[in-house]
Amino acid sequence: MRSRFLDILAVFLLFCTSPVLAGIEPAALDVAGVYKVGDIDPNLTGKGVNIGLVCRSDTYNGLDPRNDYRPDISHDCFKDMEIKFYDDKPEQAGVSPHSTAIASILAGLDANAVSSEFGGFSYEGVCPDAQIDVYEFRHFIAEYVFEGFWPQVDLLTMSLGWVVEDWWTRGIDNMAENFGVLVIAAIGNGKSAHDLPLYPAAGANVLAVGVADSAGTLTNFSVPDPNRSTQGPTLDGRCKPDIIAPGNCLIALAGTKDGFAASGDYSSFAAPVVTGVASMLIQKARSNPDLRLAASPFMGNCILKSILMTSAKKLPGWHKGFDSSDDDHEYPLDFKQGAGMVDAKAAYNVLTAGVQMGGDIKTSGWTVDIIEPNYSSEKVYNFKNEKTEEAHLSVVLTWNKVYQNRYPFEPLSQRQADLQIELWKTEAGGNQELVDYSDSPVDNIEHLYTNIEPNTEYKLVVSHSDNSELPQVSIPYAISWQVK
User: How confident is the model over 383-397, as a mean pLDDT?
Assistant: First the structure.
């Protein structure tokens, strides 16, 4: 356990006369709610969580990477970092500025950081006590994705990508489905980089992260700029990104002992923010037997994905699909914001509200269930908004797309499903009125975000899509919800 208060106090006493940044850095993590969760539960530092960080090499000798994929762990903010590399040839290894920045956002820690530009501050990544396993991208694809092996990590993060689906992108989707491991990836850097939604982030089972725009600041973040954060839909009409996060963070500079700089608005640096938040949720879930399902190999990726998206904060202009409201039931997400900006504190609250197995539910929580293989099957969740004023209901339903377990990892059409979710209101006299529904023909996510009336009873209904032409199959799903 570490004391954020003592860290801040020490920095204040040392640097009270210098141009000090406010409190803990990166400030982007405070905007994302990370430090607020730390105030509630100071033990959530990533202890016991193993993050797989897949990094690209900066240079290659032919097709062989030259091992400059590594974070520069000689930087002061990594002195207590628990890190493991897939190879054992440090004498041949270089370092990567890109990977160094990502690793510092994830797990950097330096209570007495100093910068000539920023003064003194306490530097604290999202989960400095997590173990980071670093893999070179091509090695990871060959040894794990192609072979269909689980790399024995709790979640994976990748700030890299390619503009078209390929066997290896489907293999990553298969890994997420097979092992229940949450894969978090950067969506791309927008029109300025000529990026379409990048794979693996554009994959059906991967959580794709866009970047909230900072307008050059380190403290204020707003709606993504399409020039700097890739927006959907994908070429096959699916909604991406799934979520956004602040990306302009103070980051460790490779090749220096203690240098820091602003990263800029890039999705590469938004993805580790969400990865760190997910790591905190995994640690919390493991600490409580009633929550452990959220960190299990059975649908753990879908549970965490649903919780992170349900709890995300809608920024100004959030709207499903295109500008018209005609497609709001068909497109579950906003093409720029996804479900909104990550909110670690709200996600923590949804997780800790606990598993509720159907029937009568509280106004916040989550569960996993299975829809049976016939179109009359449905699962019903009843709740009442007991508040005296109107509130917002946010719900995310998600399930995995299923692939072959071996190269080339083609989708298994006979095992695909298309689900829908409906919200019904119970009126006086017991009559039911349909309030809203989400029924995308291509996404494996459905999302409701709607007003609900005070002192009113509602029900959520999960079922097979009425319009689906897919075969009838049993399909496990995860769903979470929050009224606020």
Answer: 92
Do 273 and 403 have their domain in common?
no
Question: Which amino acid does the sequence have at 82?
Answer: E
List C-alpha distances in Å: 138 to 60, 65, 188, 214, 482: 11, 8, 19, 33, 40
Task: Tell whether 2 is covered by a domain.
Answer: no
pTM of the complete model:
0.93
CB neighbours of 110 closer than 8 A, spacing ≥ 6?
A: 76, 77, 79, 122, 123, 258
Q: Tell me, what amino acid is at 388?
A: T
Give all strands of the β-sheet with 182-186 in edge-to-edge order.
82-85, 131-136, 50-55, 155-158, 182-186, 207-212, 243-246
Domain that holds residue 399: 355-483
**Average pLDDT in the 112-129 region?**
92
pLDDT at position 7 over 50: no
Q: Is 20 contained in some domain? A: yes
Render pLDDT for 173-221 as a digit per residue (tens, 0 to 9).
999 999 999 999 999 999 998 899 999 999 999 999 999 999 999 999 9
Determine what percent of the chain falls in helix, strand and coil, rounding each to the nearest 5.
25, 30, 45
Q: How many domains, in total, are found in the chain?
A: 2
Confirm whether 341 is domain-assigned. Answer: no
With beta carbons less than 8 A apart as the criterion, state whether 445 and 398 touch.
yes
The domain that holds 130 is classified in CATH as 3.40.50.200
